Write a sequence for this structure.
C-alpha cells in the first residue's frame, strides 16, 4: 500500500504531462489546418481575380475604340460643323442609334465643344440625352484636354450607372471639336459574380466601391473620405442619387469586410486596374476557422483515445496515410490546373497572333479595294462623255460642207463635253479621296434639262421616249451642278437600259414641298426582283449580263447625294417598273435672294 500510494502522484504527473502534450499537439494541428485552408482560399481568390480581371478588361475593350470609329463618320462631323441643321442632327441621331443597336453597347452620344449633347442613340426615348449639358463630367473634360477620357458614374439623366468612354473628335479644316461618348453597362458582370458566389468589388481611384457582387458594398468607400474628395465627387456628380457622404467605410479597422451581415471576411487579394481602379476579392474565413477547430478537436480526441488505447500506433498510421492521400490528391489537382492554365495561355497567344495577321491582311485588302474603286469609277464616268463626243464629232464631220453653223454648234458641244470630262475627273478624284467639294446654289430645272439632253441620244438609239415634268416654281438646292447632273444622267441611263426598246418610256419629274425637292426618274420596265433590290446599291454589283457595266453607278449616286445632305430612295415591284427619287433639302427663297444680292 505505501508503495502504491507513492506511485499515484507520479502517475498523475505523467498523465498531466501527456495531457498537456496532447493538447499542445491538437492546437498545433488546428493552426496547421487553419493555414492550409486559408492558403486554399487565397489560391481560389487569385484564380477568381484573374478571371474577373480578364472579364472586365474584355468587356471594356469591346467598346474602347467605338467612340473614335463613330466619330470618323461624315454624319457626325456634319452635326458638329452645323449643329443648327436639323437634317444633319437627325442623320447623326439615326447613325448613332444604328451603331448602338448593332454593336450591343449601351448609349452612344455626341457632345459639342461646350459639353452640350447634339445627338444621341436614345434620341427618340423619353430619357433622351439630347440637349443636356455634361460639361461637368470628368470624362468630357479629360477627352477635351487630352483626347480621351473614361470614368464610371451614375447617370444624371437616367439614374442608371455605367462606364463612360469618351474620345475627342477634331476637324482642323473647320476648327470644330466635339466628343463622342459611349456608355457601357457593366452590371451583368455583377450578376455573373453573384451567381457564382464570388465576393468581388471594383474601386475607383478614390477607393469608392462602384461595381460589386455584394449589395451592401456598393457606393461605399473603403476608408473615410476627406472633405475635399467628397466635394470633388459632389461637383462631378459621379455618384448622383447615392448617399456617399453618409456611407459607412467598409474597412474602418483593418482588412475585414462584412458580408451581408452574416459573418466576417478577409480581403485577401487585390490587383490594380486601369484608370486607378483596383479589383478586390474577399471570402468568408469561417471555413478555415471551422477546419482549424475541427482539426484541433480531432487531434485532441485522437490523443486522448491514444492515451487510453493500446492501438494508438495503428490509429496514427491511418491518420498519416489519410493526410498523405489528401496531399497527393491536392498536388495532382494543382498539377492538372497548372497544365490547363499553360494550355490556355498558349491558346490565347496563338489567337492574338492570328488576330494581328488578320488585321494586317484587312488593311492591305482595304487599300487594294480603294484603288480598284477609284480606277473603275474613272473608267465608268469618262466612258459616257467620250461616246457622246465621238458622236458629236462624227456628225460635225458629215455636216462640215453642208451646214457650217450646225457644225460649229456641234464642235462647241464637243468642247463642252471635254470640259465636262475634266469636271468629272476632278469630282472623281475628290470622291476617291473622300474630299468634300464646295457646294453652291443650283437651279434644279436647269440641271434636269441638261441631263435630259445628255441622255437623249441614247434614248433615241434605243427607241425610248423621254418625258419631263418640271415643277411649277424654280427650286434651288445647295449642291454641285456637274455632280448633280452626273447623278441624273446615271439614273436616266439605267432607266433607258431597263425598259423594252421601242416600247419603253422614261419620265423625269420635279416635285417641291416646303422643305425638300424630289427628282423622280421612273420607267415602265419589268422592275427589280425583291431578292436583288437590297443589293442594288452595293459597289461592283450589277445585273447586266455579258460583263457590261461595273456596278458602280448607283454606288456613286448614293455617295454624291449624301454629300449634298440628301438621300436616294429606290422603289420597284416586278412588272410595275422602277422609280428612283433623289430627295434634297430645298434652298429657302430668302437665302437665295441674299446670295444673289
Amino acid at each position: 500500500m505505501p508503495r502504491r500510494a507513492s506511485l499515484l502522484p507520479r502517475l498523475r504527473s505523467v498523465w498531466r504531462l501527456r495531457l498537456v502534450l496532447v493538447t499542445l499537439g491538437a492546437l498545433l494541428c488546428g493552426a496547421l489546418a487553419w493555414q492550409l485552408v486559408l492558403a486554399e482560399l487565397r489560391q481560389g481568390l487569385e484564380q477568381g481575380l484573374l478571371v474577373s480581371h480578364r472579364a472586365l478588361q474584355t468587356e471594356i475593350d469591346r467598346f474602347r475604340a467605338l467612340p473614335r470609329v463613330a466619330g470618323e463618320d461624315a454624319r457626325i462631323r456634319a452635326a458638329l460643323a452645323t449643329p443648327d441643321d436639323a437634317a444633319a442632327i437627325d442623320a447623326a441621331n439615326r447613325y448613332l442609334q444604328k451603331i448602338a443597336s448593332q454593336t450591343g453597347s449601351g448609349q452612344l452620344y455626341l457632345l459639342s465643344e461646350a459639353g452640350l449633347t447634339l445627338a444621341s442613340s436614345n434620341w427618340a426615348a423619353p430619357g433622351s440625352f439630347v440637349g443636356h449639358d455634361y460639361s461637368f463630367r470628368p470624362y468630357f473634360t479629360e477627352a477635351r484636354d487630352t483626347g480621351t477620357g473614361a470614368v464610371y458614374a451614375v447617370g444624371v439623366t437616367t439614374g442608371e450607372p455605367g462606364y463612360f468612354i469618351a474620345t475627342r473628335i477634331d476637324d482642323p479644316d473647320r476648327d470644330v471639336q466635339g466628343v463622342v461618348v459611349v456608355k457601357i453597362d457593366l452590371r451583368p458582370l455583377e450578376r455573373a459574380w453573384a451567381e457564382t458566389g464570388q465576393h468581388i468589388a471594383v474601386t475607383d481611384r478614390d477607393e469608392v466601391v462602384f461595381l460589386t457582387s455584394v449589395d451592401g458594398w456598393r457606393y461605399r468607400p473603403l476608408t473615410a473620405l476627406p472633405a475635399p474628395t467628397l466635394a470633388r465627387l459632389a461637383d462631378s456628380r459621379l455618384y448622383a442619387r447615392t448617399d456617399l457622404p453618409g456611407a459607412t467605410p467598409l474597412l474602418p479597422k483593418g482588412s475585414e469586410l462584412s458580408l451581408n451581415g452574416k459573418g466576417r471576411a478577409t480581403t485577401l487579394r487585390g490587383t490594380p486596374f486601369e484608370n486607378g481602379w483596383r479589383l478586390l476579392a474577399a471570402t468568408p474565413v469561417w471555413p478555415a476557422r471551422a477546419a482549424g477547430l475541427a482539426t484541433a478537436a480531432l487531434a485532441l480526441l485522437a490523443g486522448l483515445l491514444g492515451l487510453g488505447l493500446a492501438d494508438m500506433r495503428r490509429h496514427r498510421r491511418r491518420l498519416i496515410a489519410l493526410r498523405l492521400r489528401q496531399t497527393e490528391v491536392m498536388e495532382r489537382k494543382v498539377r492538372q490546373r497548372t497544365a490547363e492554365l499553360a494550355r490556355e495561355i498558349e491558346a490565347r497567344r496563338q489567337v492574338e497572333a492570328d488576330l494581328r495577321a488578320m488585321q494586317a491582311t484587312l488593311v492591305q485588302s482595304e487599300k487594294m479595294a480603294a484603288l480598284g474603286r477609284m480606277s473603275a469609277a474613272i473608267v465608268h464616268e469618262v466612258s459616257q462623255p467620250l461616246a457622246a463626243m465621238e458622236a458629236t464629232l462624227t456628225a460635225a464631220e458629215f455636216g462640215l460642207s453642208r451646214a457650217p453653223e450646225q457644225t460649229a454648234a456641234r464642235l462647241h458641244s464637243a468642247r463642252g463635253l471635254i470640259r465636262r470630262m475634266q469636271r468629272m475627273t476632278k469630282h472623281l478624284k475628290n470622291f476617291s479621296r473622300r474630299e468634300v467639294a464646295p457646294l453652291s446654289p443650283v437651279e434644279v430645272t436647269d440641271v434636269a434639262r441638261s441631263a435630259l439632253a445628255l441622255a437623249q441620244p441614247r434614248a433615241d438609239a434605243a427607241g425610248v421616249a423621254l418625258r419631263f415634268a418640271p415643277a411649277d416654281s424654280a427650286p434651288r438646292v445647295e449642291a454641285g451642278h456637274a455632280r448633280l447632273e452626273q447623278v441624273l444622267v446615271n439614273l436616266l441611263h439605267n432607266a433607258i437600259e431597263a425598259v423594252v426598246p421601242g416600247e419603253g418610256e422614261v419620265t423625269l419629274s420635279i416635285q417641291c414641298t416646303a422643305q425638300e425637292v424630289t427628282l423622280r426618274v421612273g420607267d415602265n420596265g419589268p422592275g427589280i426582283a425583291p431578292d436583288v433590290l437590297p443589293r442594288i446599291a452595293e459597289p461592283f454589283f450589277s445585273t447586266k449580263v455579258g460583263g457590261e457595266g461595273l456596278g458602280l453607278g448607283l454606288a456613286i449616286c448614293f455617295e454624291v447625294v449624301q454629300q449634298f445632305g440628301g438621300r436616294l430612295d429606290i422603289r420597284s415591284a416586278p412588272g410595275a417598273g422602277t422609280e428612283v427619287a433623289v430627295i434634297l433639302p430645298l434652298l429657302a427663297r430668302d437665302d437665295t435672294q441674299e446670295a444673289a444680292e
